[in-house]
Design goal:
Order of helices and strands: HHHEHEEHEEEHEEEHEHEHHEHHEHHH
Distance between the termini: 53 Å
Strand order of the largest sheet: 3-6-9-1-10
Strand content: 5-15%
Radius of gyration: 21 Å
Number of helices: 15
CATH topology of the domain at 250-359: Helicase, Ruva Protein, domain 3
CATH superfamily of the domain at 250-359: Magnesium chelatase subunit I, C-Terminal domain
Number of strands: 13
CATH class of the domain at 250-359: Mainly Alpha
Structural class: alpha/beta
Helix content: 40-55%
Protein backbone atom coordinates (compact mmCIF):
# COMPACT_ATOMS: atom_id res chain seq x y z
CA UNK A 1 0.00 0.00 0.00
CA UNK A 2 1.51 3.29 -1.10
CA UNK A 3 1.36 6.43 1.05
CA UNK A 4 -0.93 9.22 0.03
CA UNK A 5 0.63 11.76 -2.37
CA UNK A 6 1.50 15.20 -1.08
CA UNK A 7 -0.83 18.12 -1.55
CA UNK A 8 -0.81 20.68 -4.34
CA UNK A 9 1.04 23.02 -1.99
CA UNK A 10 4.02 20.71 -2.01
CA UNK A 11 3.71 20.15 -5.73
CA UNK A 12 4.09 23.88 -6.22
CA UNK A 13 7.13 23.85 -3.94
CA UNK A 14 9.01 21.33 -6.06
CA UNK A 15 10.23 23.81 -8.65
CA UNK A 16 11.27 26.58 -6.25
CA UNK A 17 14.92 27.51 -6.81
CA UNK A 18 17.36 27.06 -3.95
CA UNK A 19 17.59 30.08 -1.73
CA UNK A 20 14.25 31.42 -2.86
CA UNK A 21 12.36 33.32 -0.23
CA UNK A 22 10.68 36.59 0.54
CA UNK A 23 7.91 37.80 -1.74
CA UNK A 24 9.25 35.90 -4.75
CA UNK A 25 9.66 32.50 -3.06
CA UNK A 26 7.51 30.05 -1.18
CA UNK A 27 6.42 32.15 1.81
CA UNK A 28 3.42 32.94 3.96
CA UNK A 29 0.42 30.64 4.04
CA UNK A 30 1.78 28.30 1.34
CA UNK A 31 4.98 27.71 3.30
CA UNK A 32 3.11 27.21 6.57
CA UNK A 33 0.75 24.65 5.02
CA UNK A 34 3.66 22.83 3.45
CA UNK A 35 5.63 22.80 6.69
CA UNK A 36 2.61 21.40 8.53
CA UNK A 37 2.56 18.41 6.16
CA UNK A 38 6.33 18.08 6.38
CA UNK A 39 6.18 17.96 10.20
CA UNK A 40 3.51 15.25 10.17
CA UNK A 41 5.31 13.08 7.63
CA UNK A 42 8.80 13.41 9.09
CA UNK A 43 7.41 12.61 12.54
CA UNK A 44 6.23 9.25 11.17
CA UNK A 45 9.59 8.60 9.51
CA UNK A 46 11.44 9.47 12.72
CA UNK A 47 9.11 7.20 14.69
CA UNK A 48 9.89 4.35 12.30
CA UNK A 49 13.65 4.84 12.65
CA UNK A 50 13.43 5.30 16.42
CA UNK A 51 11.44 2.08 16.77
CA UNK A 52 14.43 0.17 15.41
CA UNK A 53 17.29 2.04 17.10
CA UNK A 54 15.80 2.50 20.56
CA UNK A 55 16.93 5.05 23.11
CA UNK A 56 18.52 7.50 20.67
CA UNK A 57 15.84 9.82 19.19
CA UNK A 58 18.58 12.27 18.14
CA UNK A 59 19.81 9.72 15.59
CA UNK A 60 16.43 9.69 13.84
CA UNK A 61 16.25 13.50 13.87
CA UNK A 62 19.67 13.97 12.27
CA UNK A 63 19.15 11.14 9.78
CA UNK A 64 15.89 12.64 8.47
CA UNK A 65 17.40 16.15 8.47
CA UNK A 66 20.27 14.95 6.26
CA UNK A 67 17.75 13.37 3.89
CA UNK A 68 15.76 16.62 3.58
CA UNK A 69 18.97 18.61 3.11
CA UNK A 70 19.82 16.32 0.16
CA UNK A 71 23.05 15.27 1.83
CA UNK A 72 24.78 11.99 2.65
CA UNK A 73 25.28 10.18 5.94
CA UNK A 74 28.23 8.29 7.43
CA UNK A 75 27.42 5.95 10.34
CA UNK A 76 30.47 4.82 12.28
CA UNK A 77 30.55 2.46 15.24
CA UNK A 78 31.46 -1.00 16.49
CA UNK A 79 29.74 -4.10 15.09
CA UNK A 80 26.24 -5.06 16.17
CA UNK A 81 24.88 -1.72 17.38
CA UNK A 82 22.45 -1.19 14.47
CA UNK A 83 24.34 0.85 11.86
CA UNK A 84 22.95 -1.01 8.85
CA UNK A 85 19.57 -1.45 10.54
CA UNK A 86 19.33 2.33 10.95
CA UNK A 87 19.92 2.81 7.23
CA UNK A 88 17.45 0.07 6.30
CA UNK A 89 14.78 1.53 8.59
CA UNK A 90 15.03 4.87 6.80
CA UNK A 91 14.86 3.18 3.41
CA UNK A 92 11.88 1.02 4.45
CA UNK A 93 9.89 4.08 5.55
CA UNK A 94 10.15 5.70 2.08
CA UNK A 95 8.54 4.25 -1.04
CA UNK A 96 11.52 4.54 -3.38
CA UNK A 97 14.30 2.49 -4.97
CA UNK A 98 16.86 1.15 -2.53
CA UNK A 99 20.24 -0.42 -3.29
CA UNK A 100 22.72 -2.08 -0.94
CA UNK A 101 26.46 -2.53 -1.46
CA UNK A 102 28.62 -4.77 0.71
CA UNK A 103 32.07 -3.25 0.30
CA UNK A 104 34.96 -5.73 0.08
CA UNK A 105 38.63 -5.33 -0.95
CA UNK A 106 38.00 -6.93 -4.36
CA UNK A 107 35.02 -4.71 -5.25
CA UNK A 108 35.56 -2.78 -8.51
CA UNK A 109 34.29 0.71 -9.43
CA UNK A 110 32.14 -0.84 -12.16
CA UNK A 111 30.43 -2.94 -9.48
CA UNK A 112 29.05 0.35 -8.14
CA UNK A 113 28.41 2.44 -11.22
CA UNK A 114 27.57 -0.19 -13.81
CA UNK A 115 29.20 -1.59 -16.92
CA UNK A 116 28.68 -1.70 -20.69
CA UNK A 117 27.92 -5.22 -21.91
CA UNK A 118 28.28 -6.23 -25.56
CA UNK A 119 25.17 -7.97 -26.91
CA UNK A 120 25.99 -10.31 -29.79
CA UNK A 121 22.34 -10.41 -30.89
CA UNK A 122 22.26 -6.67 -31.56
CA UNK A 123 26.01 -6.11 -32.09
CA UNK A 124 25.78 -3.20 -29.72
CA UNK A 125 26.69 -2.27 -26.15
CA UNK A 126 24.06 -2.19 -23.43
CA UNK A 127 24.61 -0.29 -20.19
CA UNK A 128 23.88 -2.40 -17.13
CA UNK A 129 23.25 -0.02 -14.23
CA UNK A 130 24.95 -0.53 -10.89
CA UNK A 131 23.47 -0.12 -7.41
CA UNK A 132 24.19 3.64 -7.32
CA UNK A 133 21.19 4.07 -9.61
CA UNK A 134 18.81 4.01 -6.65
CA UNK A 135 17.29 6.72 -4.49
CA UNK A 136 18.83 5.42 -1.26
CA UNK A 137 22.16 3.60 -1.46
CA UNK A 138 23.30 1.70 1.64
CA UNK A 139 27.06 1.14 1.61
CA UNK A 140 28.07 -1.40 4.26
CA UNK A 141 31.64 -1.18 5.63
CA UNK A 142 32.80 1.35 3.08
CA UNK A 143 36.33 1.40 4.52
CA UNK A 144 36.89 -2.20 3.39
CA UNK A 145 36.89 -1.17 -0.29
CA UNK A 146 40.01 0.01 -2.11
CA UNK A 147 40.57 3.77 -2.60
CA UNK A 148 39.88 3.31 -6.32
CA UNK A 149 36.42 1.93 -5.58
CA UNK A 150 35.73 4.49 -2.84
CA UNK A 151 36.55 7.30 -5.29
CA UNK A 152 33.85 6.02 -7.64
CA UNK A 153 31.34 7.43 -5.16
CA UNK A 154 32.81 10.95 -5.25
CA UNK A 155 31.17 12.09 -8.49
CA UNK A 156 27.92 10.36 -7.52
CA UNK A 157 27.71 12.05 -4.12
CA UNK A 158 28.74 15.53 -5.19
CA UNK A 159 27.18 15.89 -8.64
CA UNK A 160 24.38 13.32 -8.73
CA UNK A 161 25.82 11.67 -11.80
CA UNK A 162 28.37 9.06 -12.84
CA UNK A 163 30.54 8.69 -15.93
CA UNK A 164 31.13 5.26 -17.49
CA UNK A 165 33.25 4.86 -20.63
CA UNK A 166 32.99 8.58 -21.37
CA UNK A 167 29.19 8.71 -21.08
CA UNK A 168 27.61 10.64 -18.22
CA UNK A 169 24.54 9.13 -16.60
CA UNK A 170 22.28 11.14 -14.29
CA UNK A 171 21.32 9.49 -11.02
CA UNK A 172 17.71 9.47 -9.77
CA UNK A 173 16.51 12.02 -7.24
CA UNK A 174 16.32 12.07 -4.32
CA UNK A 175 19.75 10.50 -3.95
CA UNK A 176 21.10 9.63 -0.51
CA UNK A 177 24.17 7.58 0.36
CA UNK A 178 24.14 6.04 3.85
CA UNK A 179 27.55 4.46 4.42
CA UNK A 180 28.69 2.52 7.47
CA UNK A 181 32.17 1.76 8.70
CA UNK A 182 33.69 -0.10 11.60
CA UNK A 183 36.38 1.82 13.56
CA UNK A 184 37.80 -1.40 15.06
CA UNK A 185 39.41 -4.35 13.28
CA UNK A 186 41.20 -1.96 10.96
CA UNK A 187 43.46 -4.63 9.41
CA UNK A 188 42.85 -4.86 5.69
CA UNK A 189 40.82 -1.64 5.57
CA UNK A 190 41.36 1.63 3.73
CA UNK A 191 40.52 4.76 5.78
CA UNK A 192 38.34 7.20 3.87
CA UNK A 193 40.40 10.07 2.42
CA UNK A 194 39.62 13.61 3.55
CA UNK A 195 38.06 14.47 0.18
CA UNK A 196 35.48 11.74 0.55
CA UNK A 197 34.77 12.32 4.24
CA UNK A 198 34.01 15.92 3.36
CA UNK A 199 31.29 14.74 0.97
CA UNK A 200 29.34 13.24 3.86
CA UNK A 201 27.04 15.85 5.35
CA UNK A 202 27.10 14.30 8.82
CA UNK A 203 28.64 11.45 10.75
CA UNK A 204 26.72 9.56 13.43
CA UNK A 205 27.81 7.10 16.09
CA UNK A 206 25.08 4.79 17.36
CA UNK A 207 26.70 3.66 20.60
CA UNK A 208 25.56 0.97 23.00
CA UNK A 209 21.97 1.32 24.30
CA UNK A 210 21.31 1.76 28.00
CA UNK A 211 19.72 -1.06 29.99
CA UNK A 212 16.11 0.13 29.52
CA UNK A 213 16.54 0.68 25.77
CA UNK A 214 18.17 -2.72 25.29
CA UNK A 215 15.39 -4.40 27.28
CA UNK A 216 12.83 -2.65 25.08
CA UNK A 217 14.74 -3.92 22.03
CA UNK A 218 14.56 -7.48 23.34
CA UNK A 219 10.80 -7.20 23.85
CA UNK A 220 10.19 -5.72 20.39
CA UNK A 221 12.37 -8.16 18.48
CA UNK A 222 11.57 -11.31 20.44
CA UNK A 223 9.11 -12.64 17.87
CA UNK A 224 10.02 -10.77 14.67
CA UNK A 225 12.87 -8.94 12.98
CA UNK A 226 13.41 -5.23 13.65
CA UNK A 227 12.17 -4.19 10.21
CA UNK A 228 9.19 -6.53 9.88
CA UNK A 229 6.63 -4.00 11.13
CA UNK A 230 7.85 -1.05 9.04
CA UNK A 231 6.05 0.23 5.95
CA UNK A 232 6.40 3.27 3.71
CA UNK A 233 4.93 6.50 5.06
CA UNK A 234 6.02 8.78 2.21
CA UNK A 235 7.42 8.64 -1.32
CA UNK A 236 10.59 9.76 -3.04
CA UNK A 237 8.67 12.45 -4.94
CA UNK A 238 7.35 13.82 -1.66
CA UNK A 239 10.88 13.93 -0.25
CA UNK A 240 11.88 16.12 -3.20
CA UNK A 241 8.99 18.49 -2.46
CA UNK A 242 9.89 18.61 1.21
CA UNK A 243 13.47 19.44 0.23
CA UNK A 244 12.14 22.41 -1.73
CA UNK A 245 10.29 23.58 1.39
CA UNK A 246 13.51 23.26 3.40
CA UNK A 247 15.31 25.53 0.94
CA UNK A 248 12.60 28.16 1.49
CA UNK A 249 13.24 28.27 5.26
CA UNK A 250 14.72 31.63 6.24
CA UNK A 251 18.24 31.98 7.65
CA UNK A 252 19.03 35.49 8.87
CA UNK A 253 22.40 37.15 8.20
CA UNK A 254 23.20 36.79 11.90
CA UNK A 255 22.65 33.00 11.78
CA UNK A 256 24.73 32.71 8.61
CA UNK A 257 27.52 34.66 10.29
CA UNK A 258 27.26 32.32 13.29
CA UNK A 259 27.79 29.36 10.95
CA UNK A 260 30.84 31.07 9.47
CA UNK A 261 32.19 31.87 12.95
CA UNK A 262 31.99 28.22 13.99
CA UNK A 263 33.55 26.92 10.79
CA UNK A 264 36.19 29.67 10.75
CA UNK A 265 37.19 28.85 14.33
CA UNK A 266 38.12 25.31 13.24
CA UNK A 267 40.60 26.74 10.73
CA UNK A 268 42.34 28.80 13.42
CA UNK A 269 42.29 26.30 16.28
CA UNK A 270 45.84 25.46 17.42
CA UNK A 271 44.97 21.80 17.96
CA UNK A 272 43.90 21.22 14.36
CA UNK A 273 46.03 20.61 11.29
CA UNK A 274 43.03 20.94 8.97
CA UNK A 275 39.78 22.79 9.69
CA UNK A 276 36.37 22.55 8.08
CA UNK A 277 35.93 23.49 4.42
CA UNK A 278 33.49 25.96 2.83
CA UNK A 279 31.44 22.90 1.90
CA UNK A 280 30.99 22.34 5.64
CA UNK A 281 29.49 25.83 6.00
CA UNK A 282 27.00 25.16 3.21
CA UNK A 283 25.99 21.76 4.55
CA UNK A 284 25.70 22.95 8.15
CA UNK A 285 23.28 25.68 7.08
CA UNK A 286 21.27 23.29 4.87
CA UNK A 287 20.81 20.72 7.62
CA UNK A 288 19.97 23.48 10.13
CA UNK A 289 17.19 24.59 7.77
CA UNK A 290 15.93 21.00 7.62
CA UNK A 291 15.91 20.72 11.41
CA UNK A 292 13.99 24.01 11.66
CA UNK A 293 11.44 22.79 9.10
CA UNK A 294 10.98 19.53 11.02
CA UNK A 295 10.10 21.67 14.05
CA UNK A 296 7.51 23.58 12.01
CA UNK A 297 9.53 26.81 11.98
CA UNK A 298 9.98 29.09 9.00
CA UNK A 299 13.39 30.31 10.19
CA UNK A 300 16.60 28.85 11.57
CA UNK A 301 17.60 29.36 15.21
CA UNK A 302 21.14 29.24 16.61
CA UNK A 303 20.01 26.17 18.57
CA UNK A 304 19.58 24.31 15.28
CA UNK A 305 23.16 25.11 14.31
CA UNK A 306 24.50 24.12 17.73
CA UNK A 307 22.65 20.79 17.66
CA UNK A 308 24.22 19.90 14.33
CA UNK A 309 27.73 21.32 14.79
CA UNK A 310 29.16 18.09 16.19
CA UNK A 311 27.80 15.58 13.62
CA UNK A 312 28.42 17.93 10.69
CA UNK A 313 31.90 19.25 11.54
CA UNK A 314 33.83 16.72 13.64
CA UNK A 315 34.52 14.12 10.92
CA UNK A 316 36.03 16.76 8.62
CA UNK A 317 38.75 17.85 11.06
CA UNK A 318 42.32 16.56 11.24
CA UNK A 319 44.04 16.85 14.60
CA UNK A 320 47.54 18.19 14.96
CA UNK A 321 50.29 15.94 16.29
CA UNK A 322 50.33 17.46 19.78
CA UNK A 323 46.55 17.25 20.17
CA UNK A 324 46.48 13.68 18.93
CA UNK A 325 49.25 12.58 21.32
CA UNK A 326 47.49 14.27 24.24
CA UNK A 327 44.34 12.25 23.57
CA UNK A 328 42.21 15.18 22.37
CA UNK A 329 39.39 14.23 19.99
CA UNK A 330 37.81 16.20 17.15
CA UNK A 331 34.50 16.05 19.02
CA UNK A 332 36.07 17.79 22.02
CA UNK A 333 37.47 20.51 19.79
CA UNK A 334 34.06 21.17 18.19
CA UNK A 335 32.39 21.25 21.63
CA UNK A 336 34.95 23.78 22.84
CA UNK A 337 34.43 25.97 19.77
CA UNK A 338 30.64 25.92 20.19
CA UNK A 339 30.96 26.89 23.85
CA UNK A 340 33.20 29.89 23.25
CA UNK A 341 31.66 31.30 20.06
CA UNK A 342 29.23 34.21 20.45
CA UNK A 343 25.61 33.25 19.76
CA UNK A 344 23.14 35.53 17.91
CA UNK A 345 20.21 36.69 20.02
CA UNK A 346 16.74 35.25 19.26
CA UNK A 347 15.70 38.62 17.77
CA UNK A 348 18.70 38.59 15.42
CA UNK A 349 17.82 35.10 14.27
CA UNK A 350 14.22 35.98 13.42
CA UNK A 351 13.22 36.94 9.86
CA UNK A 352 12.68 40.57 10.86
CA UNK A 353 16.06 41.27 12.51
CA UNK A 354 19.59 40.75 11.27
CA UNK A 355 22.06 41.85 13.96
CA UNK A 356 22.78 41.44 17.64
CA UNK A 357 24.47 39.13 20.13
CA UNK A 358 22.99 37.41 23.12
CA UNK A 359 24.51 38.98 26.24
CA UNK A 360 26.99 36.71 27.96
CA UNK A 361 26.86 34.13 25.20
CA UNK A 362 30.63 34.07 24.79
CA UNK A 363 33.17 35.80 22.66
CA UNK A 364 33.62 35.84 18.91
CA UNK A 365 36.69 35.03 16.96
Amino acid sequence: MHPDPASATLADARDQPEGSGGSDGLRGDALRRGLSELVDTTARVREAVDSVVTGRPDLADITVAVLLAEGHLLVEDVPGVGKTTLAKALARSIDCQVGRIQFTPDLLPSDLTGVNIFRTATHDFEFRRGPVFNNIVIGDEINRASPKTQSALLECMEEGQTTVDGTTHTLPRPFLVVATQNPVEMEGTYPLPEAQRDRFTARLTVGYPDNDAELQMLDRQEAAGPLAHLSAVTTGDDVLRYAALVRAVHASPAVKQYVLDLVGATREHPGLRLGASPRASLQLLKVAKALAAMSGREHVLPDDVQTLALPVLAHRLILGTEARLSGTTAEEVVTEIVQRTAVPSPHAASPTRATGLRPGAGRGR
